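Hey, resending since the last one bounced:
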Amino acid sequence: MYHIYGLHLEGEDEIRYVGSTTQPVKRLYQHTRADGHERVPERIEWVKKNNGRIRMKLLETTSDRRGAE
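The structure tokens again:
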């Protein structure tokens, strides 16, 4: 299954990033590590500044990879 997700801050509704994954828990961990594997400097800074407050919201689940793009 492919999951479309959004990253947001705890207590806020504004989605700051949208992505897709087959492993939501692992992907959230990867985002919150912010150890240089991220390629978007603004997102790295946002993660560092808000670590511990970042949450993932599953927006949609699909069995079709194209549906997750």
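Helices lie at 24-33, 41-50, 65-68.

Sorry for the duplicate.
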